[in-house]
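Morning F.,

Quick status update on the modeling queue. The single chain you submitted on Monday has been processed. Sequence for confirmation:
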Amino acid sequence: MLVENLRINPEMAKKSYVTDFARISNEKGKRDTKKCKELLLMEIQILNPKLVILVGAEPRDAFINEIQRYPDKFMSVPFSLIGVPKKQKKKGH
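Structure tokens below.
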């Protein structure tokens, strides 16, 4: 799916670590963007990747300062539903 959805070279995909930005909810069950970002920043610090690709608007917006400060390390790409089965597609904002 990574290769198809993001059109990443298969060799690059083998060397990649992929995670979901939206993994932590608050007490109301809504996404806790601040805690999601903190967790991802810890992972980035531990793994120390050369490049972080933020997929979609939500992680892009959360990391806008990092994208502007470190454009060689952080980049954003739009989320594509190409290759996602119709039953998995959900309407978003």
